[in-house]
Amino acid sequence: MGDPPQCLRDSLRQALRQREDKLCRRKLTILPSTSVDFSSNDFLSLSTSPAYRARFLDHLQLAPPMHPFASGGSRLLDGNSAYAEDLEGFIAEFHNAPSGLLFNSGYDANVGVFSSIPQPGDLIVYDELIHASAHEGMRLSRASKRVKFSHSSPDSLKAVLQTETTADPQIYEGRRNVFIAIESVYSMDGDVAPIREFVGIVDQLLPNKNGYFIVDEAHATGVFGPRGSGVVQAMGLEDRMFIRVHTFGKALASHGAIVLCCADTRDYLINYARSLIYTTALGFPFLASIRSAYELLAEGETEQLQRKLGRLIAYFRTRLDGLNIKDTSTFEVEHFSNSPIFSLRSNVPRELASVCQQRGYTVRAIMPPTVPVGRERVRVCLHAGNTVEEIDGLLETIAMWLHRTERQKTRL
Ligand SMILES: Cc1ncc(COP(=O)(O)O)c(C=O)c1O
Fold first, then answer.
1. How far apart are CA 122 and CA 101, in angstroms?
2. Which of 81, 80, 100, 76 is closest to 90 using CA atoms?
């Protein structure tokens, strides 16, 4: 018998070496605080906004003396509060939804929804680029079948639904539920889903109204739609979505998420979503920070940040378009709609990211398995707090690297 702990460590090390060999070993990094942020999801720069800080501190001060800062348990035990319930009502009203249920993170929200709501016999149809947390929830789900469709492709969704309704008449007859899982803005490419077209296809192919959309608005929250309310509200499709997930850890400078849904679904999740039931609920400081962000949204205070971000996006886009790119395998820009997320695709993303980091710009190389093989990139996120000078500096660094790389290639 060998030494079991040593054996385990050996196999862990071997797994890490495999990742190393494939150039995809993940590491925790801390970049200098002086580095310019072109990476985080703090799109509105709310986390450093004086207005947000002041509002948050006000909320903390308003709490009566001895008000517990810890939640003290699961929402179902001691972790519930009038403050949490009032916040859910406030957010649901802002998003024009019947009700909402807070989760500790977007990850927990997606795991809770997908693992508990689809029933045996049901079908989940999901966009191939849906977030890992939705996959985790689907993996735990009792749904009979999960089928992916090509990213944001109405034709592919249509083909999948046609195949499934033909194969199983109960789907067409409305005796099985079909869940359509999408994001409104995708985290890696920043593209906006064609939700309206998807709704049309579902109406046509599932006329018995058994098609239920679950849309994750993580990257749209605060940035897209009127007062940052999201893509669904911008399209006026609130009533057509069964569930909307908004997360607070990105543009809202906080933590946690809300599942917007009807009262029955909320009640069901309280009873069956294990990622809600078996975990300590958000404590008062987090609830207060979420409240602060939503108050600023609701009062229209963040609209000027949305506008400034929009101007920076247009500026960066124009400057990127002006780059002289000879070889698109070395460098290619992918940018969709008016998203603050830019994908700088490259076959050497680590090299490009490292040059930018050395010059004081925080950007990150995104490698498989986070993105499919062949889709490696440097992901650049713009923020309302970035300046034109910072963008110019990043652009000059990219142009310098591009020039050097192309010169090296022609010498070979
Ligand atoms: C689309 C999407 N959904 C859900 C999540 C998870 O949200 P959270 O970070 O709040 O767990 C993320 C990112 O982390 C995301 O990009």
1. 23
2. 100
12 Cα–ligand 1 center, Å: 27
Q: Helices 284-298 & 50-62, crossing angle to 10 degrees?
A: 130
Q: Mind listing the domains of the chain with CATH numbers? A: 26-44+302-411 (3.90.1150.10), 52-298 (3.40.640.10)
Kindly state if the Cβ of 221 falls inside 6 Å of ligand 1.
no
In this prediction, residue 154 carries a pLDDT of 98
Tokens linked to 166: 């033909």
- Given ligand 1 and candidates 43, 102, 107, which is best to mutate, with the most ligand atoms within 8 Å of its CB? 107
247 touches 109 (CB < 8 A): yes
Which H helix or E strand runs over 377?
strand 377-381
Indicate the length of the chain as a whole number. Answer: 412
Q: What is the mean pLDDT of residues 256-281?
A: 98
Helix (H) or strand (E) holding 353: helix 349-358
Number of H helices, E strands in the chain: 15, 13
**What is the arithmetic mean of pLDDT over 293-307?**
98
What pLDDT score was predicted for residue 369?
Answer: 82
Average pLDDT rounded to a whole number, residues 374-395? 96
- Nearest-angstrom CA–CA distance, 328 and 330: 5
Residue given tokens 């963040």 in the structure block? 302
